[in-house]
Amino acid sequence: MTGAGYWVDLYQARQRLGGGFLLTRRFVLTALHCLRGLAVEECVDIRLADGHSVGGRVCRQDKEADLALVEIAADHHVDLPIPAADVAQDGDRWRGPYRPATDEVHLSGRIDRTAPHLCAGGATIEALQLTADQQLGDYSGYSGGPVEGVPPGDDRQPAVVGILIEQTPDRSDGSRATNVLIAATLGEAMRRFDHLDVAHLVDVLRPAGARAAAGGPRFSGTEALLRQLDDWAERRILDPAQLAELKFLAVQKLIDKELGGGGA
Known about the structure:
Layout: E1 7-12, E2 15-22, E3 27-31, E4 43-48, E5 53-62, E6 67-72, E7 93-96, E8 107-118, E9 124-132, E10 146-150, E11 159-170, E12 173-185, H1 186-192, H2 198-205, H3 208-212, H4 222-234, H5 240-259
Helix pairs in contact: 4-5
């Protein structure tokens, strides 16, 4: 369930840098500009939604796309739910569970469309154009927070579909922002950081119901895993090249790790 508190605040020397969220139990995804110029390998404090803090380091940056990964230190264990992931649907509602302070409002609105977007850093990314219900004039501090898609008229839990990275300036008054925000899709972020191994991808992409199932290994065998990868490809979370690579890595790594080398 995505409402259990998977978002974080990033700090260095007791100064708040910005927001982010748990992509896996090992990695936090954030907007690069939230790190305020920190270089790869620099250390940060990660303040979890439950109030606990863990150490981490900046491990990957994509300056062109304004995205970054922070790796949680190996001696820290994060026992918080990993959010379910999905592909945004144009016209659906969205909400932002993260807010930069308790006296700030939560954001919500409508997903206008998914379209290519030219970032200030120079990359053209797959992005979500979002309309916010809350007309704040300035959305500073919300960057790095997750965007949850809210499915209409059913009982499914909201799932993460993107990460907030930009606000859109008002053309008539450059000192203010419109209520149109830009988010990188979660699929874009995963493609940018393809060093994540299969086990991490499984954690972030596996549906919430499968994660909550009691007992047993993550998958009953090779066929179940391959079917799951095909399902993610059909949902456009994985492209064909990623699908082929992950199927190979799944056989090479995941089965040995999860099933102890005992076969399918």
